[in-house]
Structures are given as structure tokens and as C-alpha cells.
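Pair request: fold both.
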Amino acid sequence: MFKKILIANRGEIACRVIKTARKMGIATVAVYSEADRRALHVQLADEAVCIGPAPSKESYLAMDKIIAVCKQTGAEAVHPGYGFLSENEEFARRLEEEGIVFIGPKHAAIAAMGDKIASKKLAMQAGVNTIPGYNDPIESADEAVRIARDIGYPVMIKASAGGGGKGLRVAYDDAQCREGFESCRNEARNAFGDDRVFIEKFVEEPRHIEIQVFGDAYGNYVYLFERECSVQRRHQKVVEEAPSPFIDPDTRRAMGEQAVALARAVQYQSAGTVEFVVGKDKSFYFLEMNTRLQVEHPVTEMITGLDLVEWMIRIAAGEKLPLSQSELRIDGWAMECRINAEDPFRGFLPSTGRLVKFRPPAEVPGQLRVDTGVYEGGEISMYYDSMIAKLIVHGRDRLEAIERMQEALDAFVIRGIHSNIPFQAALMQHPRFREGRLTTGFIAEEFPEGFTPEMVPHEDPLMLRLILAAVEHKLRLRNARLSGQMNGHRYTPSPNYQVIDAQGATAATVEELSDTRFVVRSGDRVLQIDFDPRWRLGEIVLQVRIGDAPMTVQLEREGILYVLRHHGAELRARVLPAHIAALWSLMPVKTPPDMSKFLLSPMPGLLREIAVAEGQEVKAGEKLAVIEAMKMENILRAEQDGKVKKIVAKPGASLAVDEVILEFE
């Protein structure tokens, strides 16, 4: 077994690998960029070496530097995690030439599966179902149309070297096919330096279901069942689960056996994932093979009780697979939510900055797990991807897993940046999601106009208001117990309150039964609310019982407002004694300033370009500026015709949310 390994990655996957290596008694070496100097993976590793500036190509993608660190530290093997160099054939080959073990498949297998056209031909030879299509590069739009007609619309036009949704179009007729072919080829040429394009049948009501496979150096292969990854936004996975709510045992076995056949065909060693598209009739077709550990591997670990990173390390060290296919079992249901640094209410724009508060729910072995590479007080950088944590739960069945995920999301505190937790909470409650009626178009179909707070209405808003009334009364009772009050002038809180929010005022009467138990009445509604005795006023996460039902909410104060969050919904309200509420209604309302003549930055990021000049007339839809954040460029366009009065920010500036970029006349 190895004595020391290097992790050629960052963030949560680097921390994840370090955790298993430590369990196995293996020393670890972390590499980091200057932007990651204080990152969690740097703190957790036994050794850490800086390998360059923040841009990935100068650090995490710099093969020479990583190999040099291996030699410098005596690392015998490299775990690449996912992303960066994890599927780079040249990196695996160079490590092998240097006598350093790549904890992953051999470079020949990476090469064979890395090209979509070549991998599809290999799959066909191995007896794996492939989507009807034309697998050779297509030279012209006319040829693309002829092929599409032969296959039958709809068809999918894909770049051979594509990935992450780039170089992919769906065409339903000849015109869309011509346009899609040209744009797909141009996009592929610019993104990958490879403009080869192929066409295949578009599967209706498609699901994205993948099979986890393992192989060793002794010709042993197993599949560790499937993962359902259909819930995607812009071709990026959002929620993953195992097993799939759609797959029956016969289909599972057929998919698993075909995945193993493909792995055997390339003499695959290590962890790999064979991705399939599955139609509404349970027909399944090979998409691609990912020759690395997947982001969503924890759900497989949860239902099998296995450590996939440990398997990878042992296979790389020359050991045999620990179990045979007949020894593998599915236990319960697992689900993973990717917690991303993005603002779901602003079109999922990236959100960077300091994590003022980062308090994940407490881990429970076998039930709840949090994989992360950040910590409270740390920085979310604009240079890397937006994922800051993975929240994984396990239940006896799918419904229990969903309920545990909902409870865990309610308890997950992130402040200082925005996160997609409200969106994840909305997904957990969505009827179609709960029923398991998923396709890769689920999010686009259910949220066609984006995501707004109105899409997360609470099932019982009155209950939330009554909880706030109880909290306010509890606070006032505490104030009444303060020492030093004059005899005969002691403060006695009134039990009558008004909870005032955007919907109006709700009258509530609160009765204290004990320090932690209250009865709240509003009209015909009566609630008994029991507070967790460990909770103290000022703590964000509050656990209560409403009757016999437990409930987790997040509670904060913003000035005189309470902000209560539950199941993705947010209630902002004032809670005032009834006699004060009558006077409050007479107070004047402050009008917010008019910012309509300013272009504001919708996200933190780097101002790459100002596309206009002072005094220039602009038309609606015209490009005004470009902001870069988390490896993505975001173009800001004019919402209406106007004239630029003043340019406030300069290219190269680091912008905060709502910072002024330019002013219009």
C-alpha cells in the first residue's frame, strides 16, 4: 500500500480524498493555488505546496508543477479527483512514465473513452445499446439534413469533443438542423479546438441514468447499481439519487451488464461511470463513459455501505476488487443536493465573497453527510466552480430520503453569499419530483421563466406568523425578568400582538405555559408550540414542535424585522404589541432611491469589458459590459434605449453586487 499520495485537486473532493487516505493510514500532499492559500484542503493535508497563481491553467492544470511536487515530497501516487486533470490522457501517461501511480484508469482507457465518436464505436462492438445515429464526422449542413431525415426527427447534434452542454443542439426540422449544425460546429471549434460533429436520435422524455462500474488489474469487474441524475439545469446536475425511481430490477441488471461489458472492452481499472439516456419505454442507450470518480459518488456509497475512494486506492496499489457482483446489495435510498454559490432569484448568477456564516446540519452516520471544502470565514473565489458543498441523506425509502433532505436543507445556514438552498427546497416539495416523474427537461419545463420567491409558497403561512408571535413573547418575557427594575414599575408584556408582513396584519394572543411551551391563538386557530430547550434567542437554527410534529426553521433579525425561513419560503415580518401596532400604521413610508438610470452589477465578479463609451446612444438588447465570475462570462445588455452619461467602473475592477458600472442620462 502507498505511504503517501498527492491530491491534484481542490475543494470538497480534495477534502474527501484526504479523509479516506487518513482512515487508511496514508499521508497526503495537497497542492494549491495562491487563491487557495487558506483553503480547507490545505489545512487538512499532511503537507501542502503552492503551485502557482489563481488561474487553473497556471496551477491545477500545470502538469509539470504537479509532477515536480510528487518528486519533491516523495508522493508515490496521485488522486486527481474530478475535473481539472482527472480525465487527461497525457497526465496519466506522464505520471506512469515518471514511475508515479495514477489513481484512476490507465491512459489508454481514458483515451478510448474520451472521444465521443470513438467511444460510441467501441460501445457498439462491446454489445452496448447505442442511440441510432451517424457516428462519423459530418462535413456540411446539407449532409446533416440528409442524415437527420434518415434517422428521423427529432435529432441531437453533438460535438465529438463536447462536454458540460457545450456543442449540443436539438433539431426538430430541416431548418433547425442546418442552424444547429453550423452553430454547434463553430462553438465546438472555439471551445475545444475540434469542430467534428455527429448526429443521433433524440430520445423522448429522456432520463439521465448512470451505472457505477469498477475494474481491477486481474480482469474482475462489477457494477454498483445506478444513479438517477435527470434533475439538471443547463446540462448541469442539481439533484442525484440512488437507486432510480424508474428502473426495475431487470432493466438495472441489463444496464449493469452492458456497462461492465464496456469496461471489460477497454480493460478498465478503477472507478468509472457509464452514462445512459433512458426513454419513457425503459429503452436505454449509451451516452459516454466518465473515466473518473463522479461528483455524485456519495449516493452510491450510501446505498452500498462502501468507500469508493478506498476502492480506487486499493486497485491502484495492485489489489483485487474487494467484492464480487453477487455480494453487492442495495440498502435503502440516498439523495444528494449540490449546494452552489449562486443566487437562484437572480437567474442563478454566481455569488462570491466571504462566508460570514457556514453551518451545515450535523452529520449523522448512515443518515446525513456533508462533503465540503469550505469553512465559516473562508472565501468563495471567483476563479473556480460554484459548488461549495454536497448534502447527502439516506433513508429506508425514497420518501424518507426526501423528508430528511428537506429537514437538512432547513438546517443548513449560509450567509455572506447567496446559495441555491431555496431552489433545492422547492424541488423537494415539487409534486412531480416527489412522484419521481423526472426527465432531463424537468427544471426547464417546471420553471420556464426562472425561479422567484413566489414559486415557494409556504403550505401554512399562518403557522409561521404564529411562531413569530411566540418568539416575540418569549423575548419580551426574558426582558421582563431583567434585574434592577423599580418596585411598582416592573415591565409586564402584553399577550396581544400584531404580526405585520407583506400580506397585512395578523392578530395573535400568546399564553406562556412554561419557558419552552406556548399556546398561540389567532381567530379559530390554536397552536401549541414547544421550543427546543437548548435554543437561545439569537441562534439562527430553531427547532420547535407544533403539536407532535417536529419542525426546523431559520430565524434572524434585520433591524426591527424578523426573517423566518422554512422549506425554501421566507417570511419577513414585524411583530408588535397590539397597542404599538396601531401607532405604527401611522408612520410614513420611506421611498427607496430610483436606480433605474444606473447599470448595476448583478453579481460579484471581474469587469472584463465595457462595450460602450460615454455619450453613446444604445438600443435595447445591446451589449453594455461583460463580467466574469466562476469560470463564466456574463454579458449585461441594455433593457431599453438610452444614452450613456458616465462610465463609473473600469475594466479589471472587482465588482460587488449592485455596484454601479455606468450611468444613463
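--- second member of the pair ---
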Amino acid sequence: MSPAIVTWAGDEETAVVEVSATGAAARAVHDAVPGLLEEHVASRLAAQDATLWDGDLDVGDRLGWTDLHQTSRELVQRVTALREELAAEGLDHVVLAGMGGSSLAAEVITGSLGTPLTVLDSTVPTQVERVLEGDLARTVLVVASRSGTTVETDSHRRAFVAALHAAGRDAARHVVVVTKPGSPLEELAREEGYRAVFSADPRVGGRFSALSAYGLVPSALAGVDVGRLLDEAAEVAPFFGEDTEANPALVLGAALAATRPLRETVLLVDAGSGLYHFGAWAEQLLAESLGKDGRGLVPVVADEHAPELAAREERTLPVLLTPLTDDDAAAELDDVADGARRVAVSADLDAATDATEVTVSGSLGGTFLLWQHAVAVAGRLLGVNPFDQPDVEATKQATREFLGGMPSLEPPAFSDSGVEVRAPRALLAGARTVPDAVTTLLEQLDPEHGYLAVLAYLDREGRAPDLLRGVRDGLAARTGRPVTFGWGPRYLHSTGQLHKGGPPHGVFLMITGGAPAHVSIPGRDFDFAELVAAQADADARVLTSLGRPVLRLRVDTPDALAWLTGSLTRRTT
């Protein structure tokens, strides 16, 4: 099957990014791109024209990401020198404490390039304890927070510094900070004499910060050649600023936002791309940028065996992340004057035989920049401002209230086989077993627009991933609807915005665990067990207040979680 639309950007020898679209996605590109060209959207975006989007936020202060491949260059020499300095002192184990946009890109970069990096983005006590019990003598902690007040990251810093002091170490020599200029964290770092402070570009929001200090500093300290990453982005940046039908960012943005009927769900499928957990990074970019004002796209991270992919449901747009290879399609490409080749190839756009899908491949640096441009374009087409997140503060405020003594939402309704069940009485509808309670929740799914979000406040580096393996696919097969999966509390800094501000069709299954470890947070009157419980309670409260169905299941043992896993995918009569 020949693609209906192909765009390819690179030099005469190598494609750096490639996007193809078939079926309804190709027709959407064909229909939407001429308007984008007429309005000079690509060149205006590259020129950081804030008038492309409506909204109260000063978008002009959020467009610095478009030239990070240039402005981040000054970081390379400094962070490389710091890495050598740390290595000379035996500090070769890098731990990154950061949430959402402050850690996801670094996780992708280091994982894709096979460089060890420990990411601490959880308040689950056992995960925190595991890092604190590591070899602190050779550990450097990168504390990354744009605001400088992120409760999870501040708590990690406090616990880590206390552990270093207890081990007789000079804690300040082990801490590196990445934050925006003038933040409370920057002020604290200078007062405490931390090893280094990197001021990130304040014109860049978290989910657009892959090529800023947030992505580059921890990656470089871990051993990545971040200069090459910037080179990869620089190779394709000129193409993304061109008002031409062959612009891959316009093609991807149009396919995401303009496919009709609107593909409400974007299925992010890694088809051997070689990019580690890139779907999780793209998930945040899509969810936080486009999920607001009751609109947006629901990103689902899945693999090639996803039931949603097999079903080819008309409201789901599969986006396949594939390896970048030279293929015969290059023979169809035309050389242009500047020595680069890129083209849009149109086939019979009325053909009904082509399945609807989008395929994306590219270098790591180029792919980061491609998706950022494409999502900004999609925001323009959907009529949403991609640079704010108006619905995330509610859970933060509710967390503070729970930590201040607010009682939980409701008492346990019942327990079944070691699983404690909590939900509003009206939702349970008389259910007295876990399978029945799950069935009543799933009955709330809108058969045309609904999606299920599984939210697990469990140790994602312990036994939970193995015990929950297959749950997402099993529930997708059982319901015939898209299913997302997120680890708490990190999803609060990713899909949390979409859950509250996006299409109001979500149904939520929250799984929490007991507290086998109580890890204190110096200077706070709560510990990590209390913090993670408050975060789960807070998000459930906010979702419930918005009319979203929420079922909460608490498991205190691996056996109970294993039993629950089987119950989730088993239909009841």
C-alpha cells in the first residue's frame, strides 16, 4: 500500500525526519495544509509570532523552544566540564528529581542512547527509599523544577540532602539545580552553596523543554553527547519554518487535528523506533497542550498488539513511531536548490482502501522538534492555546487541603479479597464485590466517545509493573474503548490536565497501595506515605467534582494486586 502523503526532510544523503499519512489522515492534510500555507503558520511560528493563538496567557513568553537548538549551545561546554569534574571526584551516578517536563525528555534521551540515569518522579515511599539507599558517595542529584516549588521535587531534595548529611557527606557538593531565573529554588541553591545552578530559558514551558537545560543537563551529566542532539534538531529546524506543503510539521499537525471525523484518540505505537519511552513524552505534549476547553486529543501509549490498533476504530488515529531508514521512496523525491530534498507525494485521496494512520520516524533531536512544531500547529487548528494548563492547579490545591487535615472523600464501601473499594454510593449501585464494582464503572463509558484511564499509585520500579502487565490491553479488549495507563503521581504532570480540561468523556480507575515504608520529609509535618495518599485523594476529589466517574481500589499486598489484575479483565454477568 503506497502512502497518500509522504514528507521527508534531510540532506542529500540522509532523511532526518519523515512523516507519512494515509486514508482519512491524508485527506485531512490535503484539506488543511493550504489554509496553513495561506496564513503563513509555519514561518510565523518559527518567528515566534504569538498572535497565532488566542488566550489570556502571554504566548510570546512561551515560544523560546523554537530556537533552543541555537540558544542551548552555551550549555554544552559548561555541563561537559561539570561532568568531567564530577567524574574526577567519583560522582558518576546521576539521579534526576523532576516531574513531567522536567524529567520525561531526559528519560527518553538517556534511555534511547543507552546511558544510565535514575529518574525519581514518584512520591511512593518505596521508590524514594530505594534511591536513598543507593551509593550516595558516588551520587549527584539533579533537582529540576521550573517553578522551583514543585512539592514532589522539593520533598525529594529535602530527603536526599538529609540522607547525605546523615552519611557524613557535604550535601551541597552532590546537588545540581535546574530552574528558571529568580525562582525560589535558584535562591535556595545559592544560599546553600549547591554544586551548580543552571538557569533554564524562562520562555520555554516544561513540555516544550526537551532541548533546554531540563533535558540537556541531566543527560549530559549522565554521559550523553548533547551537542549532537542539538545538531540533529538544527538539521531540520529550517524545514519546519517553511510555508510549503512538504513541511513535515504541518503534515503531522494537520493529521493530528484535522482528521475527520475527528480522531478523538491518538494511539501512540512504538513500531521499533529505537526511541526509549518516546510515547510517554509525546503523551504529555499532546495531553497538556491540547486537552482544555472541553476539547483535545486523548493520547494512548500502546504497542503493536494494542486492541485499539487491531480494531481500527474510526475515532482513533494510529501514529506509528518507526525506525528511520533509507528506502525506495527517496527515488521519488526531487532535489531542490539548497541541496536538501523534501516532497509531498499525493496519491488518490478518494481511495477508500487505505487504512487511516500516520507514520513518523526521525533522529531523536529532530523528532523532538518535529512534534513540538506539529502540536503547536494542531493547537491552532483546534482553536486552543497549546501553552497553558489551566486545570492542573486544582489537584495541587486539594493536595494541600488534604495534607492540612481534610478528611478523605468517603469511607471504604467494602473489601473483597484484600482489595478495599471506595466510590460514591451512586456509582457502586449496590455492588458488593470488586468485579461488580469494576463492571458498574465500565458501564459509565460512553460507547462512542468514552475512554478509561487506569491510574496506579504504586511502585513502578517494583513488582507492580509485572503484576499489572496486560491490564491495559485486557481492559481495552473488554470495553472496546481506548484505555490509558498512568503511574501516580507522575501522570498529574502529564495527562492530568486532559482528564480535567479535555473532552468530558473519561472514566477513572484508581489503584492505590499501602505504605510498607514511611520515609520522612525533613522540615515538613507529613511524610512520603501521607503525601502520595493526599495526592491520590486530591485528584479523585477534583475528578469527582467535575462529574467524572472514579472508582478507587486499594491493595496492600502483591497477592491482592495479582488477584485484582485478573478481576479487571474478567467480565461479570
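Observation on the second member. The chain is about 40% helix and 15% strand.
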